[in-house]
């Protein structure tokens, strides 16, 4: 049974909580740059949707369809240009990725999941839970994924290639040619490309390309409203499955969760229907400005870093200051800035620290880092 | 991989939906007695909690702790008299049972789940998903479970004994002596008793005994607020684990779902804190009255039935009218009453029909049945 073999591994949340707790107990003011929780307002219509739901008939408080509220699925299908039957509304991207990985492993066409290094730590955790094996493809220094490196490691053992674009933690955004190549590699190896696109609204490069743009039965796209609507706690996500895999995924979803939570789904539906594109645009601009502010200060601090093309995070390396938990704690105590150790994301970034820019105090944090390291 | 082996089995919801759809398309008025969705008001404080949450700071819309809102877990732990560290808030009883069954199978002490016949159809489905095997213990004619029959079938292969009290579909409530015996059988076979107690607020016999009343490291209790607060769509449940299994269960919960949905958890917390016991009492009395009304009419219809000691359902058998889907459809068309086929719940009740009493039209339905069969 897979879970018995799970090591006492530090997945992101426990480590994340340890760092947050350490920061909260610090004897000084600390700018938190640990979590990926948006710090801005959700869409006004989301609050309206919740308020209206609070007054709904008791019937509206009962089970939604297992695969999600019908209107919500229809909205998602229309926006993404896919057949509604292929859409399952999930308990956030977390469940969407779990279902996608289970689908890939259950096909019986390989038991290996190709992951990138650096990696989002839930992916290896889910792979182990599902009894799959892991193989890593190193990302380039700037976080880009070279399809040739993926092709080289893909084989008949490959069940899935799992990517995250825009990427956590590197900030890389994979362009259309890369996505096409990745799907082709999946097809050539009778595998699936799994593309987690939860940061898709935060592309600063204009080069983001969803895997949905590549027509193929060999890809699953996962996403959520967690980041785009600033509601990581609502747990409303979705996955778009190939036709021949969607029924098995619906069955697993039903057997694990029965259905997702209806108040959250209803609020997201209202927000989807009534929110002006300017809402998303403004938050993307806010984040793009924070990237500029923060990286400029990193220059002043003499740090090495990758300017993110998308997402919430900046990876930075300071001389003689590897990205260990001990150094993260030192930075909390002595600089008043809390980040995440780079070694939480695989071996490739052990020397680095990850800073989440979802705080209004980005400039202050940058100044503190410049002063500490300057 | 387990899910590839899942047959195209009819779990309750798809069949349930088929029957509901058939009823909705019928050319006549139909009293729906298919679903287990409460038809009464949720606690007023639940609506208040949702309204207040709709106005909360953006921070309150972000990830709750993976194992559930701290105050909600504390409320649950206090009410159930258990250590809060053993409580995981889940996406309804559905996820709670999934985690409990995975825990039992992951211990490496057997791969067989003992189930009752009749059985709630999600249980065999989850067993298959998790790669376990099933063995059935027949319930008595009145739905009671004879511990001797369980003891006879338990062995070193037994990973878990899974019971549901008050029971769906039989309406049986297991008394304290039975629960004590079941835990002892689990202990004697190095197995776990898994007790799904989601209908615990609907005990009409006064004999309900939670497995939490038996002190043992060999039992897991699952529950939810779905029925007691009339919110099956909110997906807020919980499981109480033995100390040595709770960490692995938290890891699985985190890897599958990250966390449950926060608006629903917050609303349930408010309702727990502010709802007078009279709310639960009134709904139990309402259901007890419906049981009386319905069974009296079944007498008039010449049906055989078991008077439920708890829960939402009555199993009834009409002469020469087996509980097939075809007969369920006939009853919809010709009597205007929609029930569930007994054969959805295993082999023991193939001749029976299950009627859910969560409709204000119980008396009307009973009259229609009396007229049709009388």
Automatic annotation (TrEMBL), chains A, B:
Residue ranges constituting the Aminotransferase class I/classII large domain according to the UniProt record: 29-368
| Spans through the membrane | none
Keywords noted in UniProt: Aminotransferase, Pyridoxal phosphate, Transferase
The coenzyme or cofactor needed here is:
pyridoxal 5'-phosphate
Pfam families found in the cross-reference section: Aminotran_1_2
GO MF terms here are: pyridoxal phosphate binding; transaminase activity
Q: Does the keyword Oxidoreductase apply?
A: no
Organism domain of life: Archaea
Q: How does it assemble?
A: Homodimer.
* Protein family: Belongs to the class-I pyridoxal-phosphate-dependent aminotransferase family.
Q: What is this protein called?
A: Pyridoxal phosphate-dependent aminotransferase
Per the UniProt entry, what species is this protein from, by scientific name? Natronoarchaeum mannanilyticum
């Amino acid at each position: 049974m897979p879970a018995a073999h799970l090591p006492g591994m530090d997945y992101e949340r426990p480590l994340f909580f340890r760092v947050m707790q350490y920061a909260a107990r610090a004897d000084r003011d600390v700018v938190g740059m640990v979590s990926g929780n948006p710090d801005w307002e959700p869409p006004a219509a989301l609050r309206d949707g919740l308020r209206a739901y609070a007054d709904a008939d008791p019937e509206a408080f009962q089970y939604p369809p297992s695969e999600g509220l019908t209107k919500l699925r229809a909205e998602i299908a229309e926006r993404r240009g896919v057949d509604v039957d292929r859409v399952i509304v999930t308990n956030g991207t977390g469940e969407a990725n779990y279902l996608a990985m289970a689908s890939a492993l259950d096909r019986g066409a390989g038991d290996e999941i190709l992951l990138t290094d650096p990696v989002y730590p839930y992916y290896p955790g889910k792979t182990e839970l599902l009894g799959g094996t892991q193989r890593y493809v190193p990302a380039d220094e700037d976080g880009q994924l070279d399809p040739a490196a993926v092709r080289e490691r893909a084989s008949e053992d490959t069940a899935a290639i799992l990517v995250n674009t825009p990427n956590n933690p590197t900030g890389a955004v994979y362009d259309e040619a890369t996505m096409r190549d990745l799907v082709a590699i999946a097809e050539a190896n009778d595998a699936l490309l799994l593309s987690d696109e939860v940061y898709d609204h935060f592309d600063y490069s204009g080069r983001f390309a969803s895997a949905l743009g590549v027509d193929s039965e060999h890809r699953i796209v996962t996403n959520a409203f967690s980041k785009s609507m600033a509601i990581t706690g609502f747990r409303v996500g979705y996955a778009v499955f190939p036709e021949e895999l969607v029924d098995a995924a619906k069955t697993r979803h039903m057997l694990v969760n029965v259905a997702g939570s209806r108040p959250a789904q209803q609020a997201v539906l209202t927000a989807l229907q009534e929110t002006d594109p300017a809402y998303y645009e403004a938050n993307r601009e806010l984040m793009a400005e924070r990237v500029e502010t923060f990286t400029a200060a990193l220059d002043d601090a003499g740090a090495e870093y990758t300017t993110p093309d998308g997402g919430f995070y900046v990876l930075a390396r300071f001389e003689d200051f590897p990205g260990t938990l001990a150094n993260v704690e030192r930075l909390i105590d002595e600089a008043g800035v809390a980040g995440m150790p780079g070694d939480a994301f695989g071996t490739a970034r052990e020397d680095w620290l990850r800073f989440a820019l979802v705080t209004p105090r980005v400039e202050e944090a940058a100044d503190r880092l410049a002063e500490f390291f300057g």
